[in-house]
Amino acid sequence: MIEVENLSKRYGDKLAVDGLDFTVQPGIVTGFLGPNGAGKSTTMRMIAGLDEPTSGRVRLNGQDYRASAAPMAELGILLEAQAVHTGRSARNHLLALAQTNGIGARRVDEVLDMVGLREVGAKRVGGFSLGMGQRLGVASALLGDPRVVVLDEPVNGLDPEGVLWIRTLLRALADEGRTVFVSSHLMSEMAQTAARLVVVGRGRLIADTTVDEFVARASGGAVTVRTPEAATLRELLLGPDVTVTSEVSDVLLVHGLTAEQIGTAAWQAHLPVFELSAQQASLEEAFMQLTQDAVEYRSSDEKKVAA
Ligand SMILES: Nc1ncnc2c1ncn2[C@@H]1O[C@H](COP(=O)(O)OP(=O)(O)OP(=O)(O)O)[C@@H](O)[C@H]1O
């Protein structure tokens, strides 16, 4: 479990992370979403103890990670643009990491197998593609058989087969009871991988929810009804918490009632309904709506820099 409590990080006059509070539970994949510059990497670095919070704290499995006797068994982390000694082979890179952490050579071969790099284990890391480098980063993160896995943009640079592989791997790690926290800017990817989402914008928490709730909230629960008796049905449905709008004469957009309630009401009043559908925003649309302010702020910020 990861517990983030009132976490903030200031760089000069820039508040990169602003009072974040959330918990990442074991046994499921939790996605960490936000536009560029939202503070995801900074938060992940603080979770790993690589950056000191300006205020607040992080606990891993109930304790301060840095107090752990076997840190690699507690937390495995993949950060963006990790430094690797490019002259070393993949296997030697992992061996060096294993040795300094009291991990045996057998585990190195295990993780090379897990990430599909066994065949190229003897090759120099300098010649690796971006995707192979990502796989090596994942192998490093998994080396200590960690209870908590934190991955910053792991699908970056992976081809479709690699994306599928990472999705399957993340789910398998969660199914083993581990805590899996993974950042991405690809909403569609998160929809297929994560069960929960922590969404941030401008360093602040925007949503901490399930993927389903996230989409439902953004789409506002509107229902589209197509009927030749639009005026009659509109009168029938209107109530204190129900709004009905219409842009096309035979189509109503209803807020405040479910598709089932509308269908039943229409049937009871013998009104024909040709179409009845709950509006589903895609995860992409939901994310754009919820983080719009953060993105606008960001682009005006960039204009200021450019001016
Ligand atoms: N070392 C640093 N010094 C100064 N500012 C920093 C530093 N690291 C991050 N920032 C700023 O803090 C904010 C958050 O950055 P961060 O990299 O955490 O965001 P992010 O959500 O991971 O974005 P991206 O998806 O682009 O990596 C940005 O405005 C960034 O410019």
Give a quick set of tags describing it.
single chain, 307 residues, alpha/beta, six-stranded mixed sheet, 12 helices, 26% strand, elongated, binds adenosine-5'-triphosphate
Write the layout of secondary structure elements.
Elements lengths: L1 E10 L2 E11 L4 E5 L6 H8 L7 E6 L10 H4 E4 L11 H11 L4 H10 L15 H13 L5 E5 L7 H16 L3 E6 L2 H7 L2 E6 L2 E7 H9 L3 E4 L3 H8 L5 E6 L2 E5 L3 H10 L6 E4 L4 H8 L1 H15 L1
Parallel strand pairs: 3-7, 3-8, 5-6, 6-7
Antiparallel strand pairs: 1-2, 1-4, 8-9, 10-12, 10-13, 11-12
Helix pairs in contact: 3-4, 4-5, 8-11
The structure holds adenosine-5'-triphosphate.
The site of adenosine-5'-triphosphate has 12 residues, from strand 2 and helix 1.
